[in-house]
Amino acid sequence: MFLQASKATGRILSSRSVYSGHIFQIFQQTIDTPDGLRVERDLIKHAPAVAMLALTADDRVLINREYRVAINAEAFALPAGLMDPGEDPETAAKRELHEETGFAPLDVQEMCAVRSSEGMTDEVVHLMLCHVDPDQGGQQDFDQDEFVTSQFVPLAEVIDAVKSGLIASAQSVSALSYYLAFIRKSK
């Protein structure tokens, strides 16, 4: 069967750190691949993260607007953040949702985990489904270098924003798509 996980791994011949920051580290590696190639690759080792599809009982989605350096502009996306060392995805989701939005989830369920680009980074983002009560918001607790504006948006408008490209973050598109394909349709 083609879609069966292989246990074969590459043999890392050399790995040299060329950059180290607080979120990721870059390595230059020489690897003998399982299929017999010797390749030179750059690897971005990245802290794991969570992204939360936070829904209300009346199908509104909590959306963040935040400045993002990679596009040098504000972006719309689901609440998301890095996991602390040793933290499990559920705990991280609860903490990050509260920090960024002021809301505590009524429940948390992991939908799946996604990788943004296995060819260059080991980053994994756990996509979490949360339910929130819009009347139970509290104070946000931003990181020192962060400012986020959050608002509840009807699910249909969020779907339209994904279709139009207004919401383009991979984790936001993936979480919404997973929810619509595998969870909502079964209700």
Automatic annotation (TrEMBL):
GO terms for molecular function: hydrolase activity. The keyword Transcription regulation does not apply. It comes from the Bacteria. Gene3D superfamilies: Nucleoside Triphosphate Pyrophosphohydrolase. Its EC number is 3.6.-.-. Keywords: Hydrolase. It is an enzyme of class 3 (hydrolase). Its cofactor is Mg(2+). Belongs to the Nudix hydrolase family. This is NUDIX hydrolase. It comes from Lacticaseibacillus mingshuiensis. The lineage of its organism: Bacteria, Bacillati, Bacillota, Bacilli, Lactobacillales.
